[in-house]
Every structure is written in C-alpha cells, then in structure tokens.
Amino acid sequence: MKKIAAMTAIIALVSMPVLAAGQGGFTGPSTTTTTQAGGFTGPSGAVTTVANAKSLRDDTWVTLRGKIVERISDDLYKFQDASGVINVDIDHKRWNGVTVGRRTQ
C-alpha cells in the first residue's frame, strides 16, 4: 500500500511541470527563457503613440499600436511603433493565451 502511495506521489510530481507549462506570450528574441500564459482581451481605448507615452507618468495605462520586438526580462518588453521605441511592462495574467511574435501587430 505504501508503495502505491509513493508511486502515485512520484508520478504526480513528475507530470506537474508538463501540466504547468504556460501557453501564449511573445515569441522572438529573449534575454530569458520563461514561459508565459496569455495576452490582452478587453475594451480598447484611444490609441497613443510611443512618443506621447514617453511623456506620461510611470505606470500610466495606454493603448499602443505597433509591435513587441524583444523580451527584455520576465514582464518587460521592448515595444516599437512609427514614432519610436519604449519599454512596456505586461504581466503574465494579461496575455490570456494569446501568442504574438515580432511581426504581430
């Protein structure tokens, strides 16, 4: 009986990383190899340019139209539009299973 319980526990522990693997996120050059889950879904606001967003205070929520060109760290990405480049913080919970690449707008 103890062997069965031990085997069940081992199988559960070994299979957990497979079940916990994230889905979605950014595919492109990355300085880290962390898996993510998701992307943004919800109402859209007025579109802001990168040049305008740089003049706003830190942690201001904005809607940008362009491309994520690089993953810098866990939640930090380099975003680019026609007016420039800016670092954006996108939490894992915001991806919602959507996968984007360098060419996705």
TrEMBL record:
Key words, A-Z: Signal
Keyword Signal in record: yes
Residues annotated as signal peptide: 1-20
Domain of life: Bacteria
Pfam family, one: BOF
Family annotation (PANTHER family): PROTEIN YGIW
Protein name: Protein ygiW
Provenance organism: Klebsiella pneumoniae
